[in-house]
């Protein structure tokens, strides 16, 4: 609670706190009172509370990205610097990496879960994404989370290579629990923060995002993705959304399409082929989103 909302102890309020100076003068004046002045004098005394504060401007933005290749162009563009080992704010044993800086009036923390300590590859997937999101929310208390990354797209739903989507909904497609209600828990479907003004202003596509821990897609995953009505498929989004929701932190999901899941090419090959070029499109879109956010409140998005 801030000072404005602190209640004064009862009995401490003085009479002149609530009666405007001019009304006291008029009420004791022997001269006739101007009708307008009377209206003014009869108006309820102004409250000693300040006017309610409007919605707060967004000041801290957390960007969660899974891969170094996806993160670095954005780090450069936003002129972020890597937190030194001592000031990373994360436990020493965690491979998570934080970049930070000020950009157009926003304080930005960009985190990626780092390399797997044993294998040296990016720690992609839901477990690392959830952990680094949790630790970052606890440490940085962001006003808004942007989960940015690449995704597979379904051409049957209108996705093409290089498209950048803002996800309207997220859900999991590989958490199968065929017991009533647990089934819904497994799918974990939720709506993302509605951002009609970002969509109006920026040239982004909208679609539902389905998340699982595999780059490829089993027939069971495919059936679940269809049920999720997804246009894009990634390996982190629904996990980030789960943690963001738990801590009531608004989150948006910006995903660029590297491969067409229902196309002819093998997914892994197409993903690797397009990763760098599509990351440039992602980087451009996220920068535009951050530019748009600057100086705005959540309700303006
Ligand atoms: N990221 C990029 N392409 C993907 C795919 N096909 N599935 C999951 N995550 C992805």
Structural notes for this entry:
β8, α8 (219-227) and β9 form a beta-alpha-beta unit. Strands 5-9-8-6-10 form a 5-stranded mixed β-barrel. The chain has one domain (60-295): Rossmann fold, CATH 3.40.50. The chain has 301 residues and is α/β, with parallel strands linked by helices. 34% of the residues lie in helices and 21% in strands. It is built from 10 helices and 10 strands. It binds adenine.
Please give a handful of descriptors for the protein shown.
301 residues, binds adenine, five-stranded mixed beta barrel, Rossmann fold
Question: What's the CATH topology name?
Answer: Rossmann fold
Specify the CATH class. Alpha Beta
Unreliable residue runs: 1-44
Architecture per CATH nomenclature, i.e. the level-2 architecture: 3-Layer(aba) Sandwich
Structural class: alpha/beta
- Overall geometry comes to globular
Tell me roughly what share of residues is in helical segments: 25-40%
């Amino acid at each position: 609670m801030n000072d404005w909302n602190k209640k004064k102890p009862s009995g401490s309020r003085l009479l002149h706190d609530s009666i405007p100076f001019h009304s006291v003068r008029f009420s004791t004046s022997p001269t006739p009172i101007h009708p307008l002045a009377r209206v003014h004098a009869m108006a309820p005394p102004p409250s000693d509370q300040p006017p309610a504060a409007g919605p707060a401007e967004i000041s801290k933005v957390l960007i969660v990205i899974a891969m170094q290749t996806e993160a670095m162009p954005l780090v450069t563009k936003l002129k972020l610097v890597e937190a030194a080992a001592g000031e990373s704010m994360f436990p020493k044993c965690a491979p998570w990496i934080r970049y930070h800086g000020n950009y157009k009036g926003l304080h930005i923390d960009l985190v990626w879960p780092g390399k797997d300590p044993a294998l040296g590859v990016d720690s992609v997937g839901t477990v690392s994404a959830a952990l680094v999101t949790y630790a970052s929310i606890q440490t940085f208390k962001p006003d808004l989370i942007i989960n940015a990354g690449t995704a597979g797209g379904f051409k049957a739903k209108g996705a093409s290579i290089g498209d950048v989507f803002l996800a309207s909904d997220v859900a999991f497609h590989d958490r199968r629990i065929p017991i009533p209600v647990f089934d819904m828990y497994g799918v974990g479907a939720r709506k993302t923060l509605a951002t009609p003004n970002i969509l109006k202003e920026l040239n982004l596509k909208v679609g539902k995002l389905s998340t699982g821990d595999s780059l490829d897609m089993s027939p069971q995953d495919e059936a679940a993705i269809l049920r999720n009505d997804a246009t894009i498929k990634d390996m982190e989004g629904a996990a980030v959304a789960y943690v963001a929701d738990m801590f009531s932190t608004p989150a948006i999901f910006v995903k660029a399409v590297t491969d067409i899941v229902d196309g002819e090419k093998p997914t892994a090959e197409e993903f690797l082929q397009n990763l760098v070029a599509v990351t440039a499109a992602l980087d451009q879109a996220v920068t535009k989103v951050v530019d748009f956010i600057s100086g705005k409140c959540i309700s303006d998005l």
